């Protein structure tokens, strides 16, 4: 089958087009023929070698975490999917590889594609949708009447998280550039901070939840907009000891995580704020909850650009540039 392969880690290393063997299908997996795949900053960071400690992949490696496509084959223990089903998923860590014609996906990580969405729209959802769900629903337990600050509202996670937070009944603030103010308002943002001319720290206060996706300086500033008892959830690091336990990291890696996050954890504790790092996980049941929201019209996908399969390297470069409004997708069919 055709795939794009990473031969060695390196900043902006080009993925190589190759013919590789069909993947082996495990008993609890579904083989999906890929029609579309989301392109995420996570793919670029893995390519660059930034996650070697957390995700020690063997090279050569096929990248790609989001998939929408059609079931081509099912393993003997699969019960809820059959050949021909239209499905979507965020594939599991260590089974990634959606930048290929076929990819095996655990049944537990898979969901039927939302009715009414194209394959490209469906492929844009899983990673960002599950990130927002696990941050706002699972970790933050965001409630009606609370205030949530979602950073980078016009990005992939931001466009989804704003809609989810509004559905949950929260007042939502976000940051974006001047040209994207109208977009984030249409998604439901109540307070929009134009980072080109404003500092969110001067405007926002008394928030219950912050979803941080930016650098360390922004992370520290976020503490000051939260009220006592608030929750600071970061998807851009630093990883905390709890995450080290979750992934059963070796002792050395756990120590590194403890040291990297010690500063922000100490400052958060001093303000009575709960700090947590989130590295989202594949989860089919949560994805089905997201499907229901999409089919009910509560959330809609925001797709910036669709690239052909042959242009994966260009798609990755476009995502890295950080100017996409919503998600970037590659199309196979």
Task: Describe, in plain words, how this protein is organized in 3D.
The chain is α/β, with parallel strands linked by helices and 333 residues long. It folds into two domains: 2-125 and 301-331, Alpha-Beta Complex (Quinone Oxidoreductase, Chain A, domain 1), CATH 3.90.180.10; 128-277, 3-Layer(aba) Sandwich (Rossmann fold). It is built from eleven helices and 16 strands. It has helices at residues 41-48, 119-123, 126-139, 156-167, 181-187, 200-203, 216-223, 241-246, 251-270, 284-295, 312-320, and strands at residues 2-6, 16-19, 29-39, 61-62, 66-74, 86-90, 102-106, 110-112, 147-150, 171-176, 191-194, 207-212, 226-234, 274-277, 303-308, 327-331. The strands form three sheets. Strands 3, 5, 6, 7, 8, 15 and 16 form a seven-stranded mixed β-sheet that branches. A six-stranded parallel β-sheet has the order 11-10-9-12-13-14, with helices on both faces. A three-stranded antiparallel β-sheet has the order 2-1-4, with no helix packed on it. α11 links the parallel β15 and β16 (327-331). It is globular, with a radius of gyration of 19 Å. The two termini are 14 Å apart. It holds the Pfam family ADH_zinc_N_2. Residues 10-330 form the Enoyl reductase (ER) domain. This is NADP-dependent oxidoreductase.
């Amino acid at each position: 089958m055709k795939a794009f392969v990473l031969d060695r880690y390196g900043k902006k290393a080009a993925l190589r087009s190759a013919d590789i063997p069909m993947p082996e299908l495990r008993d609890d997996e579904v083989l999906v023929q890929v029609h579309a795949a989301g392109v995420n900053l996570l793919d670029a960071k893995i390519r660059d070698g930034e996650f070697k400690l957390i995700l020690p992949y063997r090279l050569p490696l096929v990248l790609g975490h989001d998939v929408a496509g059609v079931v081509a084959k099912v393993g003997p223990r699969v019960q809820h999917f059959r050949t021909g089903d239209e499905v979507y998923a965020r594939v599991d860590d260590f089974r990634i590889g959606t930048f290929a014609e076929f990819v095996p996906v655990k049944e537990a990580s898979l969901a039927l594609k939302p009715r009414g969405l194209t394959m490209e729209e469906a492929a844009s959802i899983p990673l960002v949708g599950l990130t927002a769900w696990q941050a706002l629903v699972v970790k933050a337990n965001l409630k009606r009447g609370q205030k949530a600050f979602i950073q980078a509202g016009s990005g992939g996670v931001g466009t989804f998280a704003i809609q989810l937070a509004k559905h949950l009944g929260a007042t939502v603030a976000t940051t974006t550039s001047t040209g994207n103010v109208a977009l984030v308002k249409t998604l439901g943002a109540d307070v929009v901070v134009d980072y080109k001319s404003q500092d969110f720290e001067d405007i926002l206060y008394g928030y219950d939840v912050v979803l941080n996706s930016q650098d360390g300086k922004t992370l520290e500033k976020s503490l000051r907009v939260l009220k006592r008892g608030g929750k600071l959830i970061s998807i851009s690091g630093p990883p905390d000891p709890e995450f080290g336990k979750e992934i059963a990291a070796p002792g050395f890696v756990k120590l590194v995580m403890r040291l990297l996050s010690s500063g922000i954890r100490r400052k958060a504790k001093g303000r009575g704020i709960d700090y947590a790092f989130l590295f989202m996980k594949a989860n089919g049941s949560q994805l089905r909850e997201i499907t229901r929201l999409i089919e009910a019209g509560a959330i809609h996908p925001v797709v910036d650009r669709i690239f052909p399969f042959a242009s994966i390297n260009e798609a990755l470069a476009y995502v890295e540039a950080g100017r996409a409004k919503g998600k970037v997708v590659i199309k196979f069919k």
